[in-house]
From TrEMBL:
<comment type="similarity">
    <text>Belongs to the ABC transporter superfamily.</text>
</comment>
<dbReference type="GO" id="GO:0016887">
    <property type="term" value="F:ATP hydrolysis activity"/>
</dbReference>
<dbReference type="GO" id="GO:0005524">
    <property type="term" value="F:ATP binding"/>
</dbReference>
<keyword id="KW-0067">ATP-binding</keyword>
<dbReference type="Pfam" id="PF00005">
    <property type="entry name" value="ABC_tran"/>
</dbReference>
<dbReference type="InterPro" id="IPR003593">
    <property type="entry name" value="AAA+_ATPase"/>
</dbReference>
<keyword id="KW-0547">Nucleotide-binding</keyword>
<protein>
    <recommendedName>
        <fullName>ABC transporter domain-containing protein</fullName>
    </recommendedName>
</protein>
<dbReference type="InterPro" id="IPR003439">
    <property type="entry name" value="ABC_transporter-like_ATP-bd"/>
</dbReference>
<dbReference type="InterPro" id="IPR027417">
    <property type="entry name" value="P-loop_NTPase"/>
</dbReference>
<keyword id="KW-0813">Transport</keyword>
<feature type="domain" description="ABC transporter">
    <location>
        <begin position="2"/>
        <end position="230"/>
    </location>
</feature>
Length: 302
């Protein structure tokens, strides 16, 4: 178990992380969310043991990581922007990190073979890193992070700058690596992270403002739900606004309306009856969950 107790970090007079308390169980995949400057990266660096807290502590299975440096061997960390050495080949880069991580010479090749296979980089193993695509560069970064077969993985913005296909590729890799490990990920791609993480923690101004499963997170931050309909007719917008329980109506494109309605009411039957009464042509009528992005915006707008 990873335990953050009253964790705080101050740079000069600026308090970046403020009294954060989090417990992460073994085997969880946890998404850490927040706007720019919220304290995500600083928190991850403290968990990884590369940045000491100003106050509070990070414990792994009850051991303070600042008091026992050996416990850091259980952590694999991929920092933001994935720092690589472009002049090296992938082979040289992994050999360098095997030395840096203190892997015995007799065990290094087995460790390297393991990460090359798990991260799918055999095709580029002898190539210079400078020649690799962004997707392969990220895979090389992941391979460095898991060289010692750590049981805790920390990834800071691992899909930043990748195209949709590359992001999906890396998401699948994270799911695979997370089957037998605890994984903590920060990302700005909220919908993508919701598909990977079993739990999502939102940090705003250095403090935790939400800690829920993706499903429960969608229910936070508002007392309304969304109904979308595509309908052809006259006076639709003005009529929809007069329905009891409707909070807001917008026409996002021609004949397509998004209706925000009080959660306690299901107005889909009313909308159907209204369409029949006014001789509208109702083409689509569906209630949808609030997007993670909507909830995120509400919780971090203050």
């Amino acid at each position: 178990m990873i335990t953050l107790s009253k964790l705080s970090k101050r740079f000069d007079r600026q308090l970046v992380v403020n009294d954060v308390n989090i417990k992460i169980n073994e085997g969880e995949i946890v998404g850490l969310l927040g706007p720019n400057g919220a304290g995500k990266t600083t928190t991850l660096r403290m968990i990884a043991g590369v940045l000491p807290p100003s106050k509070g502590k990070v414990e792994i299975d009850g051991t303070d990581i600042t008091l026992d440096g050996s416990i850091k061997k259980r952590i694999g960390f991929l920092p933001e922007n994935n720092p690589l050495y472009d002049e090296m080949t992938v082979e040289e880069y992994l050999a360098f990190w095997a030395d840096m991580k203190g892997i015995a010479k007799s065990d290094q090749q087995d460790a390297i073979d393991f990460v090359v296979d798990r991260c799918g980089i055999s095709e580029v193993y002898y190539r210079p890193i400078s020649e690799l695509s962004k997707g392969y560069r990220q895979r090389v970064g992941f391979s460095q992070a898991i060289l010692t077969k750590p049981d805790i993985l920390i990834f800071d913005e691992p899909t930043e700058g990748l195209d949709p296909n590359q992001r999906q590729d890396i998401a699948n890799l994270i799911r695979d690596l997370g089957k037998k490990r605890t994984v903590i990920i920060s990302s700005h791609v909220l919908a993508e992270l919701a598909k990977i993480a079993s739990r999502m923690i939102i940090i705003h101004k250095g403090a935790v403002v939400a800690d829920e499963t993706p499903e429960n997170l969608r229910k936070l931050g508002s007392s309304s739900q969304i109904v979308e309909l595509e309908v052809k007719g006259t006076g639709v917008l003005s009529t929809l606004k007069k329905i009891d329980g409707v909070v807001d109506v917008s026409e996002t494109r021609k004949n397509y309306f998004v209706v925000e309605v009080n959660k306690k009411q299901d107005i889909r039957e009313d909308l159907y009856d209204l369409s029949v009464k006014n001789k509208w042509k109702l083409l689509t009528l569906v209630a949808r969950e609030r997007a993670i992005e909507d909830v995120f915006g509400q919780l971090t707008s203050a």
